From TrEMBL:
Residues 20-127 form the Impact N-terminal domain. GO terms for biological process: regulation of translational initiation. One of its GO terms (cellular component) is cytoplasm. InterPro entries: Impact, Impact_N, Impact_N_sf, Ribosomal_Su5_D2-typ_SF. Gene3D superfamilies: Impact, N-terminal domain. This is Impact N-terminal domain-containing protein. Belongs to the IMPACT family. Pfam families: Impact_N (PF01205).
Length: 204
């Protein structure tokens, strides 16, 4: 079971690719959803308000069934900008990422082949200039119990080196655990078979 994914930790530094007086500025941003992607796009449109095109591609989702992406040519010939940018997202095997390439037209038409190369290269440079990390896909569990069971719960957490996300120790106790996906079933069973301890999955 694959339970890791690659993403970037922060926005990349601006990169620049030039071809026959056209300038292509490349940027990479970490995003969790389309709304975040749109905010970064608006920022760049404001920053580069004299540019001709703001072409982009983004992808979100950590597992195959959750992958969602969009590619936009923003007025360039069909499939000459957005898909070459998206191709670099696939090539670098990253997700939860937005890549934008801003073009200033230099007066010389590059042709479809030239555009594909320029947008692909600027996207590649942006990702090469990013801090790419591998992260685990985790599930979050809510473990509920009363105070007398505190010791046994904490012993299990320590024994399996589990990550506590949050604790609510009130009239009764709730502890939220983040567990790596491939270990999740075994950990669920361990708590589920412990006397007077409840466990359930929650959305992470």
């Amino acid at each position: 079971m694959k339970d890791t994914y690659k993403t970037i930790t922060k926005a990349s530094e601006e990169v620049l690719f030039k071809d026959r007086n056209s300038k292509f500025f490349g940027y990479a941003f970490p995003v969790k959803n389309e709304e975040e992607a749109n905010l970064y796009l608006e920022e760049l449109k404001s920053k580069h308000h004299k540019a001709r095109h703001w072409c982009y591609a983004w992808q979100t989702g950590k597992e195959e069934q959750d992958i969602y992406y969009r590619a936009n040519d923003d007025g360039e010939p069909s499939n000459s900008a957005g898909m070459p940018i998206y191709g670099q997202i696939q090539s670098f095997e990253v997700t939860n990422v937005l890549i934008v390439v801003v073009r200033y037209f230099g007066g010389v038409k590059l042709g479809v082949g030239g555009l594909i190369n320029a947008y692909k290269t600027a996207a590649q440079m942006a990702l090469e200039n990013s801090n790419i990390v591998e992260r685990t896909i985790d599930e979050v569990f809510e473990v509920s119990f009363d105070y007398p069971e505190m010791n046994i719960v904490m012993r299990l957490i320590k024994e399996y080196n589990l990550n506590i996300v949050e604790q609510k120790l009130e009239l009764d106790c709730k502890i939220y655990l983040s567990v790596r996906k491939k270990e999740a079933e075994a950990i669920f069973d361990k708590f589920n078979t412990t006397y007077k301890v409840g466990i359930k999955r929650v959305d992470s």
